[in-house]
């Protein structure tokens, strides 16, 4: 059954259907998707065979049927519906007219009269039939009902005038005297969900019914109101935009009339003036003049206008011909470097020599300085000092993670939002064409499908090419030959070969404890005091406290974390002063906890339970030297070897080589040859965070294994490094300076170094060397003689 048309009042017939008495039982006609209310009448379509039969029968009988909404949404035929699918309250429908349409369906005109409740179903075939009881609609008359009715009528009128509901509905509502009918008619116009419509039908008390309908009516009015406001605001938005557009058009027309030209002309004129004043290379001037002429022709509203304008701004902002004057006084340079940095004697010397060469041969390009060393040893700040002493501007670009050539050289202007590359951006920032230009972390340069940034850098650094460096965005040559490039790196190996060839490498290793203390006292602390608005009268950190700070809160080759911890103490003191603390804060080792929390590092050697099978090796990593423990252990087995601790390929091979050496030299070493077949060995290198590869742990592996088999410990106060061969030779390795510093940091003052590394030891500053005992073995036998503790029986 589908609702067919707008509601219609049924014209009075000869019989008044409302007067007819309710029979005991009624055939039940299911309704789909709507509720039929008493007092209403409208045409319905009936297409299901079961229901058509019902209509046929009803027409011959008393013309009455029960109209009950179905709870189910989709029904193919009404005979599918059972009692449970229908609501239990319905309305008696009186059949006025039947029209059999040629298409096969019935069109019937029905009006709703009484409300009934289904008592029980007494038949299901050919259609449902139920015993019914009338639900009375008792009319009460009081002030409240009157007021409610008045309110509903008024609100409904409002709703009709605010929506597209037919105006006649207002007259109909006003003419209805039965308040139930008023409530039902209104509720049928509110677009309610069927559940709500049925709920309203089921309300018996007139008072509650009117209340509910008034509530739903108000809700509907609110929604209508809100959607109206929304529409209005959208319209206003549109209107304003249109208005602005028209006003702008008019403004332009008026300007034209007055012969004033427009704003944009003024802009172009200003740019022309700026260009005239700016010192430019001939090529840059030519390009910028052309661009200005083009800009004059483009309408300012077009996006191209802005592109042009930005391009010209870039050209105007660059220091094409602006340079600062060098002061290259070597004595001053030495003093400046000393003032900014403690120690680093050799490095400073190299820098002075480098500057001296530059002074003598100003026009010829010397190599590019590349400072290589662990983090926090002052590479960046040395660059700054060089700039300061030469009276040059300083700029820095971080190359770590740069994978795209365009980052160096820019994007072509055809790209939307294109910009110059970092070289040009930095020069704009420097404001001079001869700054000291620090290329930070040149070893971390990447490359991928977007092009190889190192080839762009090569051009930047190549004295043959860099006088005509062309950024993709600018597309004008910029002379970089006066720029002084300095590069920094943690490791040399990952710098692309052609780049490395252009550079003069200066290696910086880490600092000793003593140097760190001096750097902290003379440089870092004063710097941090100033940065936190403090003076030496506010805070003093005793030397023992600084020593404890270095040992217990930092483990690094440089002083980066040390500086950070000092800053933390300064922050703490500043906060105390702000809270009203008066007088000087003296920080002793005991007070470190208050400022920095619990100790972060413990002495590495002391933390180990020492015994046979443990040896101290020395490793080199990009962040400085590290001590490395080689642990070995044996258990009953069949000669197997397990290696753990995330060892790299070369280090694994070195463990195997160590074992082979021991097996083949067992007799000389005093080890029972049969033992190897009876045990399984496990070699472990703890501390997963340290990258472990390379051959330099060879001597420590052999020492650890021999110590294990002999049952005599390796000396705890000795650290060692060196590659081994199967014949028992000890070969040289790299990173000696950093490794020695790592041993010192761990409190070890005796170091075994391959004899061929003696020259590297001599490079270590005298004062550091003096505190260490070096051994230079040629062979493994010599290593073992030094490293393994003497048997007590042998003395
Ligand atoms: N010898 C020194 N004397 C005085 N201050 C130093 C010395 N070495 C380092 N510093 C200070 O330590 C801090 C860290 O140094 P810097 O940033 O230059 O390290 P870096 O070697 O460039 O590290 P990275 O490789 O991580 O960039 C700076 O404040 C610097 O001034």
Describe, in plain words, how this protein is organized in 3D.
With 795 residues, the chain is an alpha/beta fold. The protein is built from 28 helices and 25 strands. Strands 2-4-5-6-7 form a 5-stranded mixed β-barrel. The chain has a 5-stranded parallel sheet with strand order 9-10-13-8-14, with helices on both faces. Strand 5 and strand 6 form a beta hairpin. It is elongated and about 130 Å long. 35% of the residues are buried. The model is unreliable at 4-13 (pLDDT under 50). Adenosine-5'-triphosphate binds next to helix 12, helix 17 and helix 19.
Q: What tags apply to this protein structure?
A:
binds adenosine-5'-triphosphate, Archaeosine Trna-guanine Transglycosylase, Chain: A, domain 4, single chain, five-stranded mixed beta barrel, five-stranded parallel sheet, hydrolase, alpha/beta, 795 residues, Lon_lid, Methane Monooxygenase Hydroxylase, Chain G, domain 1
Per-chain topology:
Blueprint: E1 2-3, E2 25-31, E3 41-46, H1 49-60, E4 64-69, E5 89-100, E6 106-123, E7 129-135, H2 143-162, H3 168-175, H4 179-188, H5 194-202, H6 206-258, H7 263-277, H8 282-297, H9 303-317, H10 330-340, H11 345-360, E8 368-372, H12 379-390, E9 394-398, H13 405-409, H14 422-430, E10 436-440, H15 453-461, E11 469-470, E12 477-478, E13 484-489, H16 497-501, E14 503-507, H17 513-531, E15 539-541, H18 543-553, H19 560-578, E16 585-587, H20 592-596, E17 614-621, E18 624-636, E19 641-644, H21 649-664, H22 666-669, H23 675-678, E20 679-684, H24 698-710, E21 718-720, E22 723-724, E23 730-731, H25 736-745, E24 750-752, H26 758-763, H27 766-769, E25 773-775, H28 780-787
Parallel strand pairs: 2-4, 8-13, 8-14, 9-10, 10-13, 15-16, 19-20, 21-24, 24-25
Antiparallel strand pairs: 1-3, 2-7, 3-6, 4-5, 5-6, 6-7, 11-12, 17-18, 18-20, 22-23
Helix pairs in contact: 2-3, 2-4, 2-6, 4-6, 7-8, 8-9, 10-11, 10-12, 17-18, 17-19, 21-24, 24-28
Bound molecules: adenosine-5'-triphosphate.
The site of adenosine-5'-triphosphate has 19 residues, from helix 12, helix 17 and helix 19.
């Amino acid at each position: 059954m589908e609702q067919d048309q707008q509601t219609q009042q049924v014209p009075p017939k000869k019989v008044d259907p409302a007067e007819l008495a309710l029979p005991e039982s009624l055939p039940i006609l299911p309704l789909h998707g709507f509720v039929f209310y008493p007092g209403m009448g409208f045409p319905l379509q009936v297409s299901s065979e079961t229901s058509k039969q019902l209509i046929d029968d009803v027409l011959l009988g008393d013309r009455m049927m029960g109209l009950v909404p179905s709870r189910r949404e989709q029904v193919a035929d009404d005979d599918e519906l059972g009692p449970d699918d229908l609501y239990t309250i319905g309305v008696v429908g009186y059949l006025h007219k039947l029209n059999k349409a040629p298409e096969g369906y019935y069109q019937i005109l029905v009006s709703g009269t009484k409300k009934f409740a289904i008592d029980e179903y007494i038949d299901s075939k050919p259609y449902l039939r139920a015993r019914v009881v009338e639900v009375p609609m008792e009319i009460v008359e009081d002030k409240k009902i009157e007021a409610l009715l008045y309110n509903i009528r008024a609100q409904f009128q409002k709703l009709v005038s605010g929506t597209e509901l037919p105006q006649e509905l207002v007259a109909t509502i006003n003419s209805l005297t039965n308040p139930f009918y008023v409530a039902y008619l209104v509720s049928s116009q509110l677009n309610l969900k069927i559940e709500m419509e049925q709920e309203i039908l089921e309300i018996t008390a007139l008072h509650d019914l009117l209340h509910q309908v008034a509530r739903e009516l108000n809700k509907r009015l609110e929604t209508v109101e809100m959607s109206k406001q929304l529409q209005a605001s959208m319209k206003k938005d549109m209107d304003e935009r249109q208005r602005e557009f028209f006003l702008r058009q008019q403004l332009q027309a008026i300007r034209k009339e007055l012969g004033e030209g427009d704003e944009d002309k003024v802009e172009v004129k200003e740019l022309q003036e700026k260009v005239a004043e700016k010192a430019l290379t001939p090529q840059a001037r030519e390009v910028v003049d052309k661009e200005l002429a083009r800009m004059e022709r483009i309408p300012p509203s077009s996006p191209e206008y802005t592109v042009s304008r930005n391009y010209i701004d870039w050209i105007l902002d660059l220091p094409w011909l602006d340079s600062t004057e060098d002061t290259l006084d070597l004595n001053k340079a030495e003093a400046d470097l000393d003032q900014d940095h403690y120690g680093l004697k050799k490095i400073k010397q190299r820098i002075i020599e480098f500057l001296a060469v530059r002074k003598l041969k100003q026009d010829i390009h010397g190599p590019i300085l590349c400072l290589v060393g662990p983090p926090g040893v002052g590479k960046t700040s040395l660059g700054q000092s060089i700039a300061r002493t030469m009276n040059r501007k300083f700029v820095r670009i971080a190359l770590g993670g740069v994978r795209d050539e365009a980052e160096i050289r820019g994007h072509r202007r055809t790209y939307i939002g294109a910009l110059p590359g970092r070289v040009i951006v930095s020069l704009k920032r420097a404001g001079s064409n001869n700054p000291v230009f620090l290329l930070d972390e040149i070893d971390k340069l990447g490359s991928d499908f977007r092009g190889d940034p190192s080839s762009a850098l090569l051009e930047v650094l190549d004295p043959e090419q860099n006088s005509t460096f062309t950024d993709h965005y600018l597309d004008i040559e910029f002379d970089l030959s006066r720029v002084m490039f300095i590069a920094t790196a943690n490791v040399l190996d990952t710098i692309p070969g052609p780049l490395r060839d252009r550079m003069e490498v200066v290696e910086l290793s880490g600092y000793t404890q003593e140097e760190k203390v001096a750097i902290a006292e003379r440089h870092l602390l004063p710097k941090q005091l100033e940065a936190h608005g403090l003076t030496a009268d506010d805070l003093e950190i005793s030397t023992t406290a600084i020593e404890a700070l270095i040992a217990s809160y930092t483990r690094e080759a440089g002083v980066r974390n040390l500086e950070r911890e000092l800053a933390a103490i300064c922050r703490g003191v500043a906060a105390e002063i702000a809270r009203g603390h008066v007088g000087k804060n003296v920080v002793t080792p005991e007070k470190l906890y208050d400022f920095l929390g619990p100790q972060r590092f413990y002495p590495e050697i002391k933390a180990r339970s020492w015994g046979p099978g443990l040896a101290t090796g020395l490793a080199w990593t990009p962040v400085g030297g590290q001590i490395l423990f080689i642990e070995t252990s044996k258990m009953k087995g069949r000669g197997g070897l397990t290696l753990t601790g995330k060892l790299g390929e070369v280090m694994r091979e070195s463990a195997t080589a160590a074992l082979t050496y021991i097996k083949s030299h067992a007799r000389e070493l005093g080890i029972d040859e049969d033992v190897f077949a009876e045990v399984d060995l496990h070699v472990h290198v703890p501390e997963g965070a340290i990258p472990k590869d390379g051959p330099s742990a060879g001597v420590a592996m052999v020492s650890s294994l021999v110590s294990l088999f002999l049952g005599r410990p390796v000396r705890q106060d000795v650290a060692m490094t060196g590659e081994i061969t199967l014949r028992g030779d000890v070969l040289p390795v790299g990173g000696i300076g950093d490794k020695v510093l790592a041993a010192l940091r761990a409190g070890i003052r005796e170091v075994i170094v391959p004899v061929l590394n003696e020259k590297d030891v001599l490079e270590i500053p005298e004062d550091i060397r003096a505190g260490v005992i070096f051994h230079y073995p040629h062979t493994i036998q010599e290593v073992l003689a030094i490293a393994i503790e003497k048997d007590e029986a042998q003395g």
